Amino acid sequence: MKNALRVICGLGAVWAMAMLSGCGESQSGTNALESIKQKDSVTIGVFGDKPPFGYVDEKGQNAGFDVYIAKQIAKDLLGSEEKVRFVLVEAANRIEFLKSNKADIMMANFTRTDERANQVDFANPYMKVALGVVSKDGAVTDIAQLQGKTLIVNKGTTADFYFSKNHPEIKLLKFEQNTETFAALQDGRGDALAHDNTLLFAWAKENPSFAVGIKELGEIDVIAPAVKKGNTELLEWLNEEMARLQKDKFLLKAYEDTLAPIYGDLVEARDVTFE
């Protein structure tokens, strides 16, 4: 009888711990916004190697279009942009950083797709984007020209997914980091490189021996902040914030301060951001 009671009590303790653990998980999911306010700091994931959207400048500071907006998010949320802590991510680990609570918000030029939306929650978008293909002198102007050739992409990006699904006949050379990807194109390890056209336009302007031969591929997508699945209050706040930033013309200001100097008259603000 005593042994049975020990088993029952033991099971009760395990059940109680499981209930407490479950409540904790629910709380961390639904009260992420309150948790950020309590710790008085927000952790935002950004790129460190994708200028002009997210990069580390010569002073060792995070800079770029995404970072510019992220700082304003921190200011509106906590009263000061100094209360943001940036963590550098790569394309392939953006979802994992949210799932493992290494980032509260992901602002690493994150294109919204149905597959990703099954794993994280996207807020209202702040940017428009499509795929493009850059090559030496813009020689590749049609996908058919890539038959039997090597196309360079970043792992876990929209370009990776698009070509893997729609053009399995094209050989893909994949890298984790943008610096590796573009270096591979420059030294001839691939015949062309596929990435977000907004990034390619900027890169080609800095590297005039290359040109974007395919300027728009597939559907027009959007880039948006993302949070861990189930972080309802934080998602709702972000939706309101993005609507406010668009209404107040802040997104246009962010474009003019960070992207316009790069694009010049090559791109218009309304083509890539929500005015």
TrEMBL record:
This is Solute-binding protein family 3/N-terminal domain-containing protein. InterPro entries: Bact_solute-bind_prot3, Solute-binding_3/MltF_N. Belongs to the bacterial solute-binding protein 3 family. It comes from the Bacteria. The keyword Cell wall biogenesis/degradation does not apply. Keywords: Signal, Transport. The keyword Oxidoreductase does not apply. It comes from Helicobacter canis NCTC 12740.
